[in-house]
Each structure stands twice: as C-alpha cells, then as structure tokens.
Specification:
Blueprint (H helix, E strand, L loop, with lengths): L1 E7 L6 H13 L4 E6 L14 H12 L5 E4 L11 H11 L4 E7 L12 H7 L2 E4 L11 H4 L4 E3 L9 H9 L10 H8 L6
Parallel strand pairs: 1-2, 1-4, 2-3, 4-5, 5-6
Length: 194
C-alpha cells in the first residue's frame, strides 16, 4: 500500500484541501491519501486553533464518503510540538508494509533541509510536491534535494486558505462554497471562528 500523507491543522478543512488531495491520489502512484491532523505545528501560532477532536470531526465529515481518503489522529498521542520525522517513524513502525509519501507545497522544499531529522525524511520517504503561489520564491537547497525522491504533481493552484475562511466567518460573511457541505453545516450550527 502506497499512502500519501497530507499534514495540516485543517482549521477548518476546505474545498482546496479536498481538491488537492483527490488530485494527488488520482495523478500519482499512491493508493490512498491520509490527512494527518496536527495538534500543534511548530512553525505556526496556535491562536484560533480549534480543539483537536473538533477538527478531526470536521475532516471525518468532509471525507466520509470517499474510501481513498482517510484521516489520521496519530499525532494526538505523540510529543508536542509535532515533528514530521517522528510521525513518519511511528507510522512506519505501526504499518511496516506500507510506503509513506510526504505531500508538500513547492514552497516548503526551500526549507525542508531545516526540518527536524530532514535527512531521515528524504532517505526513507518520496516527496510529492505541488505548485504553490509565493511572492518570494527562494533558491531551493539543490544539494540537499538532489538526495530526495521528488515527484512533481501539477495540481491546479487553488487560492483558498483556512485563515481566509476563519476571517470571513468572523466578519459574518458567507463561505458556503469554500467548504464541504457537511463541514459548512457543522460550522453554521456552532459559534466557531465568530
């Protein structure tokens, strides 16, 4: 089983996440894509971050009808902050017959060499990367990336972000078409992000 891992806070999960996940799964060699829900990203502030299990429920609502997409709460039981290398090692131990691929935006390739145990990541895990709009595209660390198994996935660029959706909701604006129907209903029935 080849599994692409898509790490994120998914605060909230939106149509951009789902379109990217489906595109990666259909246009690369992987069999499934797992959303790995991160309780605390060491590179992001935790302001406005909903409870772990609330975000997990939203991802489950978003993908419950698709057998090719899964969600993993594996990082909930790992030390905080969450480091990708530790999560990958734990998943490999739990599922020894699976091959895990890392899914990243192209801009993340620029800083991958600074990640915790980055050499271990690229040694054991292919990296699927997709184009991402960025104003300051820096030179990639070619020497480091030359050792990686990189797979470019020409996914369409979708300019939707969770932070934009949170801002829209906080301002009382509508974002129905940016969210999966069940997630939209879930958020509408709650006071989250308001």
């Amino acid at each position: 089983m080849k599994v692409a891992l898509f790490f994120g806070s998914f605060n909230p999960i939106h149509m951009g996440h789902l379109m990217l996940a489906d595109f990666v799964r259909q246009n690369t060699e992987v069999d499934q894509l797992w959303f790995v829900l991160s309780p605390q990203n060491p590179h992001k502030k935790q302001a406005n971050l909903l409870d772990d299990y609330t975000r997990l429920e939203m991802v489950n609502l978003a993908i419950e009808d698709d057998d090719n997409l899964r969600v993993s709460d594996i990082e909930f039981s790992l030390p905080k902050p969450s480091y990708t290398a530790i999560t990958l090692a734990y998943l490999k131990e739990k599922y020894p017959s699976y091959s895990f691929y890392l899914t990243l935006g192209e801009d993340n390739l620029n800083t991958l060499h600074k990640w915790h145990k980055s050499d271990e990541i690229i040694k054991h895990h292919p990296i699927i990367y997709y184009p991402r709009h960025t104003d300051n595209q820096k030179e990639k660390s070619n020497e480091f990336l030359a050792k990686a198994h990189l797979i470019r996935c020409e996914a369409p660029r979708i300019e939707i972000s969770s932070s934009f959706i949170r801002k829209q909701i906080s301002e009382g604006k509508e974002c129905r078409y940016m969210l999966p129907d069940k997630v939209y209903s879930f958020l509408k029935d709650s006071n989250f992000y308001r």
